[in-house]
Description:
By secondary structure, chain A is an alpha+beta fold. Among the domains of chain A are: 133-191 and 284-298, Rod shape-determining protein MreC, domain 1 (Thrombin, subunit H); 197-279, Thrombin, subunit H, CATH 2.40.10. Chain A contains four helices and 15 strands. In chain A, a hairpin with a 2-residue loop joins strand 11 (244-245) and strand 12. Chain B is an all-alpha fold.
Amino acid sequence: MTVRRIPTTQLSSRGAGALRRRLAVGVLVLLSLILISLSFRSGDDGPLTGVQSAGSTVLRPFAVGFERVAQPFRDAYSWADSLFGARSDAEQLRAEVRELRQRAIQSEFALQENDYLRRLLRYLDGPRFPGDFEPIAAEVIGRPAGAFAQAIVIAAGSRNGVRVNDPVVTADGLVGLVTRVTQGTARIQLLTDQEAAVSAVDLRTSAPGIVRHARGTRETLVLDRVRKQDVIRVGDEIVTAGWRAGGLSSLYPKGIPIGEVTSVGQTDTDLFQQVQIDPYVDLGSLDAVLVLVPAERRR
Amino acid sequence: MSAGRAARASALVFAAAMLQAVIVSSLVLGGGAPDLLLVVVISLGLIRGAVPGAIFGFAGGLLVDLITLDTLGITSLVLTLAGFWAGRYAETTGRGRGLAPLVAVGAITVLAGVFGFVLHYMLGDDVVARHALVTALAPALILNLLLALPVHALVRATVHEGEAAELSREVEVVV
Lengths: 299, 175
């Protein structure tokens, strides 16, 4: 009969080991709770903001590096994915080009007429997109995990001229709004975030509403608060309203495309119509965005 | 844990945190995305024990919160407890079981999802329960389970130590 030792872990479940273990995890949990409390209470100018800003600045080169390494794989995936629908997409795009060519000619005439009439009336207007803004192009370097935040982090911050509440777009349309800024990075709240809301209008009828995230979905938007008497059709384009009232104004300039109406419905009991929108921007696969900085700020 | 292994484990957590924040979070399949950092922290807890699991969970969570400019401490708290639970499971009932990584990843993904939801709800975030606990959590659970065994093998190869016998305090009688 022989006796041999069994390998076990360093900490047993009883005695001093257990006490050390509980102490260690207790300290870490307490530290986390202190961080949450300080971070949550202090907002954007508290004691932790500097720490977070410095940490984010230090980690930025790594995030950019990882993003660059991942980009070819992401592109390869997108390329393979797009192959499946290439034929039907091409057909649809040809039809769209024909229609848009017609509309571009009409729009050019309308634009010239509009410009002439504005000068004639000395019409005063709010800031317009894109003329009154200068875009800052930035790479997307981070995305919070989980279902709790619809946000991205970009590689441009206060030293690039980005400020809180600056609108963010891509060539396709509206992305969201800057909600936090450090020296070298900024956090963007996407349109699909539960707390995002954008005043918008139907481009065809000028029916106003508020674009919000559709509850219980990931990337669907709704045009809320649309009156029942307003006629909205499937296929209508929804753009930002850019309203001004007294000293207040919308955070988003007028005329940024948001999405296309995919369904319209109403019930007898509901005060407003239920309008669902498919956003133009694919918010799930953003690689780069444009932060719109007012031209007057950059001068 | 020796300095070399601690450094390797730290590098692994750092890489997992960066990958999670930069790439993995955007790989949404069926409404949910995998959580590579959670799986790595669970594996570290299973292999190295409750305290290292909690420490690496805290550090990884802090990194993610810093990169994503999220409320500091939320991910740290969730991952600290995840690493600790995984470690305790390995030190008690999960010891020597081949399916321990799958069981731990499955159970902790669900618990972390529910805990995260409660935490965000308590902080006043507008979170839809059905989306957080069903639409996003179910695919995340499947994706994390798919990652569990390969990630566990990678973590084991990186930080496992074979000489734990020197720490033994129990004996077994072999006839």
